[in-house]
Amino acid sequence: MQTKVQIIMGSDSDLKIMKDAAEILKEFNVEYEMTICSAHRCPDRLIKLAKEARDNGFGVIIAGAGAAAHLPGVIAAMTTLPVIGVPIISKALSGVDSLYSIVQMPSGIPVATVAIDGAKNAGILALEILGVANVEIAEKLKQFKADLEKSVNAKAEKLEKIGYEEYLK
Question: Which pTM was predicted?
Answer without folding.
Answer: 0.95
